[in-house]
Amino acid sequence: MARYAMVMDTRRCIGCQSCTVACKINNELPLDIIYNPVFTDGPKGSFPHVQRTDIPMMCMHCEDPPCVHACPTGASIQREDGIVWVDDSKCVGCKACVMACPYGARHPNEVTGTVMKCDFCKDRVAEGERPWCVKTCHQGARIFGDLDDVNSEVFKLVNGERTVRLLDELGTGPCVYYIMD
Amino acid sequence: MGEGSKVSLLEGAEIKKSACYFCHNNCGLNAYVKNGKVVKVEGDDNYPINNGGLCSRGNMNFKFHDHPDRINYPLKRVGKRGDGNYERITWDQALDEIAGKLTRIKSEFGAEALATAGGTLRTDDWARRRFMNLYGSPNGFHNAHLCWIPTFMIETAIYGWCPFEPDLANSRCAVMWGHNPGASAMPEMRHFSDFQKKGMKLIVVDPRYTETASKADIWLPLRPGSDIALALAWLNVIIWEGLYNQEFLDNCCTGFDELAQHVAEYTPEWAASKTWLDPEQIRESARMYATNTPGNIVWGVALDQSGKSGGVATHARALLRAVTGNIDAPGSDLMGGPAQDFITDEEMEANDLLPEEQKLKQLGADKFPLLTWPGYGKIAAITKQVWGKAPTAEWMCEAHPPTVWEAITTGKPYPVKGLISLATNPLNSYGDSKKVLAALRAVDFHVSVEYWMTPSAGLADYILPAASALERPIITSTYGCADFLLASQRAVQPMYERHDDFTFWRELSLRMGHGKENWPWKNLEEANFYRIQSLGYEVNSYDEFVEKQRFHFPEREYYKYGSVGFATPSGKIELASSTLADLGFSAMPTYQTPVENEDDDPELAKEFPLVLTTGGGVMPFHHSEFFNIKELRFLRPEPHMLINNETAAELGIEKEDWVWIETKRGRIKQKADVSPAIHPRVIFTERGWWYPERGAKDPDLGGVLESNCNVLTSTEDKDCDQYGGSWANRGLLCKVYKVTEANTKGGL
Hints:
Chain B: Its cofactor is Mo-bis(molybdopterin guanine dinucleotide). The complex is a heterodimer. Chain A is built from six helices and ten strands; from the N terminus they run βαββαββαββααβαββ. By secondary structure, chain A is of the alpha+beta class. Chain A has a single domain, classed as Alpha-Beta Plaits, CATH 3.30.70. Chain B is built from 28 helices and 27 strands. In chain B, α3 runs parallel beside α20 (501-511), α4 (149-159) crosses α12 (310-324) and α17 (401-410) packs across α19 (433-442). Residues 1-5 of chain B have low confidence and may be disordered.
């Protein structure tokens, strides 16, 4: 069985937000819903000694996802391959998952009354394609793949580079890894 | 949405090999077409430029294709100009009436009374030039003066062709001189990041700590417009520290001793006060470039936009490649020359049809010879002898736009009565917007071929619908000056009543009686096939070429000059350029102060103490486009200027405050981005801004003067680059103050 994960190479990210837009356009998200914001830390320091780091965000597809635990209807589902997604037909829009997610990765859709989130473009992945945010990234700053596959790039990066996970201390087991400078 | 949905949409769809044209990279697209309609667009994984990637704009191709704001039918103005009232007419009516008007203009005022303006690679340029040559007017133009063209022509004068293709895979050091691919050319940026990982050094020369600067080994935040001082000091260090390439100089160059003497006085200490850099920084960076060979100086727009000090800086920068031997060697800047095995843009332009006496009338030729017929003619004659081909005349040989606006408004040196603009919004994209506005109000007859109702189109008499990327076959060949080409096809025929502008020019030309023999190709595919037939691929149509080949790269030949020679009068790289000297310039680059500065005009500097740089691009916009596309605008809903945090504190300006930025030509407002990413004395403003949501009608015209950086820029002859006439976006003096109710009352 696969275990899908993403590695963000912040050494390569330039904060262009192509991923933000590619996700929104191709997944036909409402204008106010963003699955993939990019936060720019900086520029900080004092001219001319400045630094900036661009940090792409998204659903962390946690190993132990609090959003799924919080869901009272079973609409929030974690697949065996790790992908966390929402079955619209079961979602009643109670927003318990929105409260539970420490990453702000769940988005109420006021029109449909359901909650939306990144599903790692599972339909594309099923076809052997990469998620939109990964395909669109000119910089190759987003690397997607199977952590259970020792030959995959994500496996090599997670095991070969120094990576960090955001809010790791909460113990949700985020499956998005960041390579920092 | 359940599992596995969305897949059926594409069943039975045909994949067309198209290209994005929202910037010059022309990333490859796969367009999925079903029942004659585009149903999906994505990056082409097999296209060598982008490998499937797309920037935020590129992702907008599908939306752009059938966006509700697009102009889809020919429109004719009814009522007063600027009121926004248009009626739909047929193409036949539009073309008949335009042809009639152009015939009258020519008979009454001469062919030179028609000017045409083109946009950024959204236009079929050789077709426009062909029309203009048949009509007899030398007065076509683009924003060419601000974008690569001066660089191309100065370098061609010195080396015999512009070495614009960096061989990065073998490079050890890349210099980004006023270039920020991190916000303007994503596919390029990827290469820099890849090769940096392999050990390539990256030097970024930029007043701003840009996306690209943030990845640099050395960042040189110089004073805007002082690039000439830095380039001269680099030459000084490289020559006087003995870091030059003796063998290359001996074999390929003339004038080294003269140059060594010429730059002896330009020490890093001399340059420090002019550039605001530290002498040691200048030394260290010069050494990094000179000792990490092979290396590249990658083109960026900054010098082309620096006005008076821009041409000389380009000239000096070009000599850096020569003294280090970074030309046409593996890993250096490659000089492939013009295409030898297919028909170039220039060969499609029919420049021989323009009478000599009309060439002499080209507006600006008397003042700025390099990018007009006097300079172009001289340089093209030599390249034809050596390479057998000439640079594209469209772009490289154009009327001087500020002089055209002036001629429209004043009738001097002669009247310009007609203007046809295509995919360009001059009010936002040309210098000194108030002067452009006066011209667009004054011009007798204005046709705009457009995608959107822009502020400039809002003043046109006719607005004609332009076909977009997915509706055009596009050949990409670096403005017709590369020895390679990439080809893309129409995904679908133009929707509604849109046309590519080849069709527009051909139809108009035939109506003007120019004769079918001048337009033997019925459509662009036929013309494109004619151009590539000689490549010898086994294909029977242009579309088949796209589907089977997609691109043509001749076998890479390093040191081509060994067999071809250098296309200069001496047959060598001329460190003291005889071509430039013949055109009336110094053979070697001399120091010029930035356009406006405290030494030349202390009074001005008292009132305007800060230094302005503008014209640089920010994602997700391109030039003055995309402000109306909400799926992009949400990323940057309002215009922002960049101000240093210490300066902002002194001026009582806080993050997100609206501020006025004022030069002696006028003022605009943008919001403050307060940051250490810029020198305390430098201000950066975003370009292109207007507000489509307000409507492109008088009196506001979409707020065209409100946040538009070109209200601040200067096009006065004395501020323009002496070689080619590029006007000044950078190195101007300005002041900044908070917007208050009291200081807003007077309006803009």
